[in-house]
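Tutorial, part two.
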Amino acid sequence: MDKSPINRTRLPVHDRSIPLPVEEAKLEIEKNRVRRWLYILGGTVSLALALLGIIVPGLPVTPLALLAAILYARSSEKLYNRLLNNRILGPRIKSYQRRKGVTRRGKVGIIAFMTMMVLFSSFVVIKIIPLRIVILSLGLIGMVVVWFFVPTAKDDPVKSPEEKAQLPS
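Running the prediction step on this input gives:
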C-alpha cells in the first residue's frame, strides 16, 4: 500500500446524485431507421461542436453537449451511455439532468461571459456597423433566452453544513 502524504490528505468523495426512477430512465429510441441515423448524425455534429467549444471561446459547451445527449437518447442507447460516462462532458449533462436546469449563479456566469464575448466581437473584431448591430441584437436575444427560457435548477438536496456532516462516508 502506498503511504505517500498525498493519499492521506484526500477527503472522501460523496455521491450526491439523485437516482432516477426506472420510468424516467427509459430511453425512447426511434423506430424509423432514417430518423435514427439523422439523430445520430445531429448528435455527432453537436458533440463535435461541444468538444470544439472547449478550445474556442464563445462556443457553448454544455448546451451542445445536452443537445447531443438528447439526440443520442432518441437514436442509440450505446452512444447515449458513452456520452454520459465521458469524463469531460458526462458530469455537466448529469448535473443538468439531476438539477433539472442551470443554477441562478450559473446563469449569471453564462450571461456575463456572453456579454464579454459579444462586446469584444462587436467593438474590437467587427468594423462593419450593420454587422455590429446584428451581433449585439443576437447577443441580447441569447441573454433573454438564457435567463427566461433555460430552466432554473432546483437546489441540491444537501443544503446546510449540518446536513453535509451527516452524509455517510
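The first helix runs from residue 5 to 8. In part three we will examine how such features are distributed along the chain.
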